[in-house]
Design brief:
Belongs to the archaeal rpoM/eukaryotic RPA12/RPB9/RPC11 RNA polymerase family. InterPro entries: Rpa12/Rpb9/Rpc10/TFS, Zn_ribbon_RPA12_C, Znf_TFIIS. Helix content is about 0%, strand content about 20%. With about 120 residues, the protein is an all-beta fold. About 10% of the residues have low confidence. The structure holds zinc ion (2 copies).
Length: about 120
């Protein structure tokens, strides 16, 4: 009787013929040598790991739109310059008024340096 032996956690027995099954591989199913029964690896591992990733979404402007965080004038977003038509403008935010009224965003065209402000 070796059922309670130290290798119990890594040894499985075929439910059909009782033979010792080969060790579970990292990938793929396990096949009984004696009766050829195939066992899904999931049946050996009832512990499932669930990873939940929480993203910080504090940015007013979608992070996907920020193309260059290293720009010295600030992050660059897709925004059409009304002066030269370039579609890349850097922005900076400034809290000029009370928090209830939002903040002012300064846009600067990366091409012609045209500046405009927008109150959010
Ligand atoms: Zn078997
Ligand atoms: Zn421009």
């Amino acid at each position: 009787m070796a059922e309670a032996g130290p290798f119990k956690s890594s040894t499985a027995f075929c439910a059909k013929c009782g033979s010792i099954l080969p060790l579970l591989q990292e990938f793929g199913s396990v096949k009984c040598y004696a009766c050829k029964a195939v066992y899904d690896p999931d049946s050996f591992n009832n512990i499932k790991f669930n990873y939940t990733i929480h993203f910080n979404t504090v940015s007013v402007i979608n992070n996907d739109k920020i193309l260059n965080m290293d720009n010295p004038e600030g992050p660059v977003v897709e925004r059409k310059c009304p002066k030269c038509g370039n579609d890349r403008m850097s922005y900076a935010t400034l809290q000029l008024r009370s928090a209830d009224e939002g903040q002012t965003v300064f846009y600067t065209c990366v091409n012609c340096k045209y500046k405009e402000t927008e109150n959010s």
